[in-house]
Amino acid sequence: MRWIAKVVGVLFIVGTLYAFVDTGFGMDTTMLLGLFPVNALLNIVHLGLGVWSYSSSRADTPAGHFCRWGGVVFIALGALGFAVDNSFDLLPMGGADRFLHLGVGLVLLVTGLIDAARPRAYRRPR
Question: Where are the alpha helices (H) located in the chain, listed in sequence order?
C-alpha cells in the first residue's frame, strides 16, 4: 500500500510540473495533452495532493489514511466533474479529468479499505 501512495504522489508531482511547463501559470483553462483541462489553481491542487501522497508513503498508517481519504476526495472530484465542467469558474473539471479522478480514487479507496481490513499482525513492520 505504501508503494501505491508513493507512485500516485510521484505521478501527480511530475504531471503537475509538466502541466506548469506546458500550459504556463495562467488562470485561463488550457488542455493538457489535448485531454485534461487545467489551469494554475488546479495544478497547485494536484501538486498538493501529490506531495500529501508522497509524504504519506513513508509509513503504513499515514499511507492507509491517504489511500482512504485521498480515494474519497478523488471520487468526489470525478463525480463533481460530471455535474459541472468548471466549478465556480476556478477549477476546470471536465474532459478526461473526470475518468482519471474516478479511476485513481477507486484504486486508492479499495487499496486503503483492504489494508484497513487486514489484522495488525499481518501488516509490515515500520
Answer: 2-23, 40-56, 60-83, 97-117
Tens-digit pLDDT profile for residues 30-73:
888 888 888 888 899 899 999 999 999 998 888 888 999 999 99
Residue 26: DSSP 8-state: -
Report how far residue 9's alpha carbon sits from residue 48's, in angstroms, rounded to the nearest whole number. Answer: 9
One-letter amino acid for residue 99 of the chain: F
The phi, psi pair for 75, rounded to 5°, reads: -65, -40
Cβ within 8 Å of residue 93, ≥6 positions away = 37, 77, 80, 81, 84, 85, 86, 87, 101
3-state secondary structure at position 37: strand
Answering whether pTM is above 0.85, one says no
Which residue's C-alpha cell is 455535474? 83
Residue 39 corresponds to which amino acid? N
CA dist 81 and 99 (Å) reads 9
